[in-house]
Amino acid sequence: MRNKLDACLQAVNQVVLGKAPQVQLAMACLLARGHLLIEDLPGMGKTTLSHTLAKVLGLSFQRIQFTSDLLPGDILGTSVFDKESGQFTFHPGPIFAELVLADEINRATPKSQSALLEAMEEGQVTIEGATRPLPEPFFVIATQNPVTQSGTFALPESQLDRFLMRLSLGYPAHAAEKALLQGQGRRAMLSRQEPLLSHRELAELQQLVEQVHASDALIDYVLRLVEATRSQPQFAWGLSPRAALGLLNAARAWALLANREYVIPEDVQAVLPAVAGHRLRERADPSGHGGSALVQWLLREVPAL
Amino acid sequence: MTPAIPRISLIWLLVAQALVILPHLAHLPLWFTGLWAFCAAWRLQIFRMRARYPNGLAKAALILATAAGVFWSRGGLIGLEAGTALLMATFVLKLVEMRTQRDALVLIYLGFFAVVTAYLLDSEMLSALYSVLPVTALLAAMVGLQQSRLAMQPWPTLRYAGKLLLQSLPLMLLLFVFFPRLGPLWSLPQPGSKGISGLAESMTPGDIANLGRSPEPVFRASFEGATPPRSELYWRALTLEHFDGRRWSQTPDLPVLATDSWQAQGQNLSYSILMQPSLQRWLFALDTARTDLPGARQLSDYRLVNVSPVEQPLLYRVSSWPQVVRDPELRPTQQRRALQLPAGNPRARELAAELKARYARPEQLVAALLTRFNQGEYFYTLKPPTLSGDTVDAFLFDSRRGFCAHYAGAATFVLRAAGIPARVVAGYQGGEFNRQGGYVQVHQFDAHAWVEYWLPERGWQRVDPTFAVAPERIEQGLEAALAEEGSFLEDSPLSPLRYRDVALLNQLRLAWDNLNYGWQRWVLGYQSEQQLGLLQRWFGEWDIQRLVIVLGGGGVLLGLLMALLLLKPWQQRLDAQQRVYRRFERLLARHGVARRPGEGARDYARRAALVLPQQARQIEGFAECFEVQRYAGIASDKGQLAQQLRALRRALPWRLSRLDDGETTR
């Protein structure tokens, strides 16, 4: 099982060059059954990463390009009148896929955004009175441009909290970019990519994550982190219990990826920037992007042992 | 990067500084106000980013200039006044170079100290109450400094400071009552004698008339039992025996009276006297007095003197026996002194001879002299004409206008010329009875001089020629005696004493005086003896040692309890793994690798292994063992961890002291 995971990571890394840490975090996020938000400038490989993950994990893939005129029905699907049968038949929208890429989610209006976000939380959608379950497994990878770019609707904090992790890819390193330019087109590589995991194996891995041992001492550390965000004055607000659970789960997945059966503080520290960065705001600047500085403070000051 | 000073803290600091400096202003040179305004303005400009912090040169120049200013205006850098001026200058100058929180803390502590030094200059009740203001503002600055959520709002900061102050009130009372009054560890020269007027060691008739214009308080006396009528209240301060034709002065180096030289007899008056600083050694008392004040002695003219000049308010208890016979026999030296007369004043001598021829017995002669004052055209006035030449003659036969000292001096002269030993006694007469407080307040204008003459076997007798001229002075006070003339306190138009006939004002004045008396008596006067007395009253007749042990023990116990409550050691229980890990940390720290708080065991071990590559195997072995035990949930042998640690200890070179981080990583 462990070898298969390694092979998956390797396959993704061959397509998305020079981003091994982000790839590993994205994998941990999916293993912990969390949704992923990738925030970066256009053209940094956000879509490529999510597409590759879908291919490698053998998931059905749908992509929704969010625009300002996108309607909730465009995501969830609509009932269309069938002339022959004389009845309305439901045409499922792109949300009914195992991995949904919500591209540039912050370009859509809040109404459309919330249609997606409800589906993420509930694992089901309700359309015209009928509740329809979403496939299992169900992942959403959303990408967004940094909100400072024009024509965007920033996600409110309540919705940001639903993403387990937020990643930022960043520019590739010199060597990676050179390899990218010399190599063949990513699209061609993607089409040739075979799935490396079956649904059963993926479910098994997710089971394994839940079995990773988190000792009392470690849970105390997680609590110390969470309590620090609630008691220290520089935090505008603290981490939610959902965030605390997510943090522990992500750390478990990280430990599993490191082939360990127990979580250590370093695992928590590895996932903390991705898990907590988008949930924290500085008191002095509640609308800004002080989250990562606060996370660095947490990593530095909260006693790990 | 050190934290800067928040705006609110700076504002409160400036307010506090103004409040701290205000009571000092009267004692500081004038230019100080300018220095303060300059520094405050500079500080504000720094805060508004329109000025820079001073550089080393500017700072040195400021310090030198200020020190020179203090030296120039205070005549030195040593002494109470110069010392306070220097302290206040530091307090003000520090403002300009205050960059970090630490600097602000220094400034705040300086401020607290400056508040205390104000007590050296003035210990009135009002100034003590006032010091609550600067202390609150300083506390507010301190609260604002701590970058709490209050850092942005001035009023909550102040409210919080006020709350802290109120909470500390019980502790303050407790400390006031129980904290041992230690003797001073060092002594500062007290402020100079300027500004304190009072009786002097010698007297020309005009001196007491000058005192008669001053409304300053001299002492307060509260009697146990009924207060005697004011015509009995002759407060003796000193006797003036030597006359040089103009000036009466006391005999230097009077011998000390042995305690058994007179026996108490008759009725006894018990009272306590709270005396204002006089910078003189004599104490005030009614005849014939004994005091329990340590070190006080009685001189051969029956006055009481203190061991040292009275520089601070002094509280002492006195018992007086008015009926005691003083000096039934006079030694020849005493007799000579009590009969000494300079040449001159022929008309007075003539009068004495005439009286002596007519009255054989001294009492009759004295009575005749008093009758002369009473029946003749003599006037009691605060504004006597200036006399020259034979002053006694000029007064007795020409001007006939005078104050008590004129009458006392002239009467003594005549008695001596008639061969009766006599002397002038200077002191205070009467006083104002404060009904609310039940005490007598004596002012400088109650200063008085009277006469004592000596009779064989009956000793010294008091006689007051002023009584013969102006009985209302003795029975009702100076104001009544000067009612016609209207000269009572005419130089102090603002003194509330002038308006005693306005009932409400007088009530207020008496109540205020009573309050001040209470303050001086119970707060300032609460010294080690009173403390011991109080404690003994509460805890029974214990000796000091036992009290100290019990109170000290109680204090230590209370401190321990509070420490337990605050530190909660039972919550900091370290398990065995953690204890071993702490030892591991300390061991590595001694070799220059201290763990950072946010560093996990694995990261730390990796870093330590890089610094100490030769011991990398042992370090990582220990970290792995710890990690498995702590996080893997596998119950394992406790000894294993300790064993790993021992292996590491053996591998490391022995080192006792701590190695700096930089030394190994360089």
UniProtKB/TrEMBL annotation, chain A:
One of its GO terms (molecular function) is ATP hydrolysis activity. Residues 228-288 form the ChlI/MoxR AAA lid domain. Pfam families: AAA_3, AAA_lid_2. Keywords: ATP-binding, Hydrolase, Nucleotide-binding. The keyword Nucleotide-binding applies. Its EC number is 3.6.3.-. CDD domains: AAA. Residues 35-165 form the ATPase AAA-3 domain. It is an enzyme of class 3 (hydrolase). Belongs to the MoxR family. This is MoxR-like ATPase.
From TrEMBL, chain B:
The chain crosses the membrane at residues 56-72, 78-96, 103-121, 127-145, 157-179, 547-567. Gene3D superfamilies: 3.10.620.30. InterPro entries: Bact_TGase-like, Papain-like_cys_pep_sf, TgpA-like_C, TgpA_N, Transglutaminase-like. It comes from the Bacteria. Residues 396-467 form the Transglutaminase-like domain. One of its GO terms (molecular function) is peptidase activity. Pfam families: DUF4129, TgpA_N, Transglut_core. GO terms for biological process: proteolysis. SMART domains: TGc. Keywords: Hydrolase, Membrane, Protease, Transmembrane, Transmembrane helix. PANTHER family: PROTEIN-GLUTAMINE GAMMA-GLUTAMYLTRANSFERASE. This is Transglutaminase-like putative cysteine protease. It comes from Pseudomonas fluvialis.
